[in-house]
Each structure stands twice: as C-alpha cells, then as structure tokens.
Write a structure and sequence with these properties.
elongated, 5 helices, 3-stranded antiparallel β-sheet, mainly alpha, about 150 residues
Amino acid sequence: MTKMSADADNHLITAASCKRAARMFNYLSIGSSVLSAALFGLGKMVGGKISFLPLAMSMPPVAVWLAASIFVYASIAHHPNLTVRHYNQWAGYRYYALLGTLPVVPIFHDFIPGGWGSIAVLLLGILLPWAGYDIWRAGREDWQDMVVDLKDHR
C-alpha cells in the first residue's frame, strides 16, 4: 500500500507495494484460468447429453478476467518502477497471446485429439509454469521503497 511522506509534494511507494503490483497480473491470470478449467471439468462430469455445457461453464471466468485484465494492465503500465512495468508487460503478453489463440481453435478442434479438453490442458500447461516462474522471480527481486515527486505528475 502507498503512504504519504511528511512532505506533501512527495509520495512514498513501498517495496511491498511494488512487489505486489509486479505479481498481480500473474496471480489473477492463474486464478481465472484454474477456475475456468475446474468449471470445464465439472461441466464434463455433469454435462451428459448437453455437449456445450463444459464450454458454456468455463467461458464466464475467462470473459470476466479478460475485461478486468485490461484495467489491471493499464493501471500497472504506468507504475513509476520500471521493473514492475516489465513484469506486468510480459504477463500481459503471455496471457493475451494464449487467449488470442482461442478464437482459432473452433476451426481445428475436430482434428485435435481430445478437443477442447486438450486445448485447455495445453493452455494451462503453458500459462501456469511460466506465470508461476514470474511470480517466484518477482519475489526474489530486491525491491526498494521509492519516493515519487508529485509535482512532476500533476
């Protein structure tokens, strides 16, 4: 969390706040992806003759996070700490690239063994380790408190 320093023209951004901001996009991407995969699996178990149920159940978390991620990405994109920006930028590249493949999948999903299930496993297999590695790396960074001069940002 940010705190005001004694000087009204300066703003203190703590090291913990920088670390949290650097990890945020990855945490939320992992959370929405795992929730979506769990709902897909649940839909497969209870779907029976309703073939679209797994897909219908798994898409809302993806759609909600896609919309919310734009705001999270934009809010962190102008962070004063360049390292925070770097982690946010690469988390966004990774998530949006993987999500950008989803509209193409219906064209080829009949030719892919396992259909949507194998696509979900593939996407999670790419996103989870890579995002987890970035979360771990951000935790090992040497974060420092920083003071931002508010006169420059008015």
